[in-house]
């Protein structure tokens, strides 16, 4: 958890309204599943965005322009310096994967990007896994080639059948699988119902993003936990719907 | 050297900057950003006797000049806080803290206040009668003079440490409420808690907060806070801690000139974890520039 | 084509955008910036029976998200306004205006309301019981249910045109006041007038306003206004005009979803003389984007 | 009275804390004694500043950095576009000068700049006049050379005697003179007491600047008048102290 001044290295559109931005600077020591919180001029609260990819001095984020803040972010020029809180949240914990478990990474929409850093990490550690990526339609597909380039077995589902398997991510066989899931709540819930075990990434409206305001707190089996500081990744047994 | 010290009913602060309840947790996260011992003090999150999850999600909404929250006093319960959180504070903060004490009945307020009173970590008790986010109790105590008088008197009788009452701005007239507290023996007042507000998402046509309404804090409430602190200052003799939308050393001096003996910084911490540190550092420089040698001399000086 | 029309007790506005009292003069200056006939309507400056200079200078203070004013109902007197200003309006505005009527006694309110009632320029009377800047009268009428009931009833009996009561947000609970107006026969409500605030110049150590306190308006009060309009909407059946910090088409829709049948734009006009024009132009575009075909259908729709 | 988007052509310091900025664009039809009202990013209210000099497509303003707004204005880069209300206020009316009157222009501190446009105009119309400029000290003297270059007989007074005549502008003989005065209230009052007649420029805190909010209204012998729209220049007989 630290504050950093990061410079926008590049911003490119991935779809109509999804952008990929690379930030450079002293990004700290990151883990897949963590997020950063970006101060934007003219907005009171910071904007939390998951880390998609990272190395020692850069962070890649992928985000949808759903409102004024993300729209402003997407149109900032290269070279602009941003006030960012980094190293936020717990991130995915690979060591929790049980021995011999079959691992599947399940992403839905803007839940896909955070899985990229995780996939890279699993690859590096020689852990086998499959990917299931769900989108509404072929126009919204993001990062597919990136996952292919990692050499991961990747299934795409689209709700309208315009690409890959028609339907939701649960079209894939998740029974008895250990999942890493990130996406909208209905998706998380559906995956939760069928999988054996796993880690689930949550989103709530946040004020501080670093654990002091209780804005993001939810009920878990282990009591009240803050999505920003105790999550955003929760294990299956922690979750209370 | 500017003398920044200020005296809250015997509790001497090295400077008037206090982090506000609910925006500073128990200080631990901030201690990882900077040495929190530079603060005058900080207020802990409001505590109730039973642990509380608080209100349903979402409970944060952004506003142009601030934010709404409908947290609803999320906390681990007063016993737990007294036994764990208060003890842990000693590891990173060497000064007395201010315990924000809530309740749903008079008896509960007394129980919780006693727990705070007994903790060596606590230097002052802040009686929160102004949380807009819990239905019964809380704000119910803060809007009627007779109930407020009764509560403050009972708590004062039960504890030894100074008791400051944190009042709500959502009232027609703050003066009779401030006077009731003083008459009941309160050692000081804290003004203001949040204004009641609402935001609606025009795309989904839903209130952004699951609870619909929430407490409005941040820069947008500053002029209201300055006025209320001054109104209270003009009618009671007990010290006042001023807060509401303060985000700079200049705001701090303005609030003190309105009548505050110390100030609290709330939402500013949430937006920038270094907000209090910056204000503490800015303050002596600004005082020097304005010819203020002893900050306590400007309290209520505004003409 | 989006249907922007809205119905205020029989007065049909082509769109819900009304310029607020005290921020639009009598419209003449704005008519030199743009054709003011594009507005739904506008409210004229508050009038008292006797001409008033208002409060001493200075009477304006800037805030981070708005401003304070302590004008104190500067006006040429109701007779003069009815005879001159109201007549002149006809030269540049073809629709009925809303007359903001003030007073210091019930009798004065009646006299002034009658003058407005008799003017062919006026379509609706806005009873201002919420000016924070005049000591006796004004706000005194707006904070006590029995006095308010009595006043509204008396004015209603004296005039034929619809009477909307403009309430103050500086109260513990808006609901009983809203209900009193409805019970007394008010045709509608206008919410909110300014919040009471203060600013101090830390260099001179003086309140910026000669009057010390003034009315806080502008973006900073928007969340409070949305909440109060919604509270009133949930307890009365009469129409509500929503205002307080509105500065865009999005704010307009949010206020209408909270329960407003029309909105007023105040401080935004002062900052940008084209504010209302921009909102009137933005509104149908934004409605289309959000799938709103008839703006009256979203009134109070927020869940 | 109109809104214009004006471009900053240049900003130069005249003293420690007084700056001269030239704005270019469709400035409207101006008169000496009028003012403009400038919207600055991050500030709610506009900042009213008198016109010092002007031609068909530029305005020169001279201002002191007394607070955040003027400080921000002074540090804006060349080329920046500003939202400005122009042609505000009544301005000085030369035709009101009585026949055979001896005219003196009296400026104090930041009241000096508005007299420059007036002086130029009087020159053009071949009306004779003298200038008296009052400052606190020699360090604060502004525009002296500009007035000399116009060929005007210019007396400088300084409160501390560091330059010119020691004392206030009333050291000059203003008895029986027709004055145009602009400066702090105590100066205006002192000049009012001794002069025969004249025009006085006033300042108040303003919200709108174009006559709709009554924020600036003062008592005059002709009733309540708005400093922004009915002034800022008032004739001697209008003034009520
Ligand atoms: C831990 C975390 C990680 C996230 N990672 C990503 C990501 O990788 N890519 C991505 O596209 N989005 C991500 N989001 C969602 C992203 O934060 C919001 O889309 C963004 O804040 C919207 O801001 P806005 O100004 O465009 O929208 P507005 O609706 O104008 O924002 C108004 C307020 O609501 C908040 N808000 C709006 N939508 C959301 C939301 N879905 N979740 C949380 N707060 C919200 C904003 O932060 C702001 O405070 C993440 C959210 C969280 C909590
Ligand atoms: C008609 C008119 C003409 C003016 N012409 C000039 C000029 O040519 N040169 C010059 O240096 N100054 C001039 N002033 C004063 C100038 O407007 C203020 O110095 C400036 O607004 C201060 O802004 P700030 O943000 O730096 O100060 P702050 O004190 O931070 O401003 C806070 C608020 O107070 C207002 N304010 C502060 N001081 C004054 C003041 N003296 N008069 C009016 N409002 C004030 C500001 O406009 C703002 O709304 C003029 C004022 C008026 C009314
Ligand atoms: C997220 C959040 C949580 C809060 N929780 C508490 C609380 O537990 N007890 C309390 O007395 N005030 C609480 N407050 C109110 C603040 O302490 C403070 O009174 C208010 O926010 C106004 O100050 P500000 O504008 O500086 O934030 C909370 C405020 C916020 C924003
Ligand atoms: C300068 C000024 C003068 C005002 N004068 C009046 C008035 O005469 N009568 C009245 O009912 N309200 C008056 N108001 C209040 C506004 O009409 C409006 O209720 C308030 O400013 C909130 O709306 P806003 O935030 O859009 O400005 C005045 C407000 C301002 C800023
Ligand atoms: S967002 Fe503040 S604690 Fe999580
Ligand atoms: S400043 Fe608004 S009328 Fe003069």
Give the end-to-end Cα distance of chain A, rounded to a whole number of Å.
Answer: 28 Å
**Overall pLDDT level of chain B:** 96
Distance between the termini of chain B: 26 Å
User: Can you list the ligands bound to this structure?
Assistant: flavin-adenine dinucleotide, flavin mononucleotide, FE2/S2 (inorganic) cluster
**The CATH superfamily title of the largest domain in chain A:** Nucleotide-binding domain of ferredoxin-NADP reductase (FNR) module
Order of helices and strands of chain A: EEEEEEHEEHEHEEEHEEEE
Strands ordered across the widest β-sheet of chain B: 4-3-16-15-10-9-8-7
Number of strands of chain B: 16
What is the CATH topology assignment of chain B?
TIM Barrel
CATH architecture heading of chain B: Alpha-Beta Barrel
The shape of chain A is: globular
Number of strands of chain A: 16
What Rg of chain A is obtained from the alpha carbons, in whole angstroms?
17 Å
CATH-level-2 architecture of the largest domain in chain A = 3-Layer(aba) Sandwich
Portion in helices of chain A: 10-25%
Order of SSEs of chain B: EEEHEEEHEHEHHEHEEEEEHEHEHH
Broad CATH class of chain B:
Alpha Beta
Major sheet attributes of chain A: 7 strands, antiparallel
Helix content of chain B: 25-40%
How would you describe this structure to a colleague?
The complex is a heterotetramer, with two copies of chain A (241 residues) and two copies of chain B (303 residues). Chain A is mainly beta and 241 residues long. Chain A folds into two domains: 2-88, Translation factors (Elongation Factor Tu (Ef-tu), domain 3, Beta Barrel); 94-238, Rossmann fold (3-Layer(aba) Sandwich), CATH 3.40.50. Helix content of chain A is 15%, strand content 37%. Chain A is built from four helices and 16 strands. Chain A has helices at 68-74, 113-124, 144-149, 185-194, and strands at residues 2-13, 18-24, 35-39, 47-50, 53-55, 58-64, 81-88, 103-108, 129-135, 153-158, 165-166, 178-182, 197-201, 217-220, 223-226, 233-235. Chain A is globular, with a radius of gyration of 17 Å. Chain A starts with a strand and ends in a 6-residue tail after the last strand. Chain B is α/β, with parallel strands linked by helices and 303 residues long. Chain B has a single domain (6-54, 75-196, 217-298), classed as TIM Barrel, CATH 3.20.20. In chain B, the strands form four sheets. In chain B, strands 4-3-16-15-10-9-8-7 form an eight-stranded parallel beta sheet. In chain B, helix 5 packs parallel to helix 6 (174-183) and helix 8 crosses helix 10. Chains in contact: A-B, B-C, C-D. Residues 206-209, 211-216, 226, 228-229 of chain D line the site of one FE2/S2 (inorganic) cluster (FES).
